[in-house]
Amino acid sequence: MTEAAPIYDAAELTRYIETRYHARHRRQLTSLVKLAEMVEDLHCDDVGVPKGLADLLAEMVGEMEVHMRKEELILFPAIRRGGGPGIEDPLAAIRADHDGHAREISRIRSLTHDMNPPRGACTSWATLYAELAELVDDLTEHIRLENDVLFPQFDGVSK
Predict the structure, then answer these.
(1) Are 94 and 67 in contact (CB under 8 A)?
(2) In whole angstroms, what is the distance from residue 128 CA to residue 29 CA?
(3) CA dist., res. 128 & res. 50, Å (int)
(4) From CA 130, how far away is CA 135, in angstroms rounded?
(5) Which residue ranges does the record assign to the Hemerythrin-like domain (predicted)?
(6) Binning pLDDT at 50, 70 and 90, where does residue 157 land?
(7) CB 122 within 8 A of CB 42
(8) Tell me: the pLDDT tens digits for 15-72?
(9) Over the stretch 74-109, which tens digit does the pLDDT of each residue have?
(10) Fewer CB under 10 Å: which end of the chain, C or N?
C-alpha cells in the first residue's frame, strides 16, 4: 500500500514529491537495472525469464532522470511561484511523460507476469519482482499525486 501525501499546499506538495518520490526512484531504478541484468544473465535459458527487462529499466533510468529534472528545474519552481503565463506547456509535457511511464509500467507487468516469479525462482528473481512491485506502486502514486492533486490546481491558470 502506498502512503498518501499529507500535504495539499502546492509548494509543499512539490517538496514532498521531490523528497519522497524523486530520491526513491533514483535509488530504485539504479538497483533494479543491476538486479534485472543478473537475473536475465543467470536464467537466460529458463522459462519465464523477463527478457528485455534490464534494457527497459535502463531506458527508464534516463527517461525518468530527464522527467524529474524538468519537474525540479522548470515546473516545480513555477508552481512554487504560483503558476503564471506559460505553465500550461510544462504541465502538458509532464502529463505526456506520465502517459509514457504508464506504458512502461504496462510493459514491466507484461514481462514479469505482473511481477509473479515462477515456482522455484531463486532469491534474486523473487527480490527483483518484489522491488519492481515497490517501484510500480511508488511511480503510480507519484503520477496520481501530480495528475490528480497538484496539476489541477494550475489548469487554466495564467496570471
Answers:
(1) yes
(2) 11
(3) 11
(4) 9
(5) 19-153
(6) low
(7) yes
(8) 999 999 999 999 999 999 999 999 999 999 888 899 999 999 999 999 999 999 999 9
(9) 999 999 999 888 899 999 999 999 999 999 999 999
(10) N
Which residue type is seen at 136?
A: V
Single out the residue of 134, 127, 141 nearest to residue 36, CA to CA.
Answer: 127
3-class SS letters over the chain: CCCCCCCCCHHHHHHHHHHHHHHHHHHHHHHHHHHHHHHHHHCCCCCCCCCCHHHHHHHHHHHHHHHHHHHHHHHHHHHHCCCCCCCHHHHHHHHHHHHHHHHHHHHHHHHCCCCCCCCCCCHHHHHHHHHHHHHHHHHHHHHHHHHHHHHHHHCCCCC
Asked whether the beta carbons of 146 and 8 are under 8 A apart, the reply is no
**Grid coordinates representing 23?**
530520491
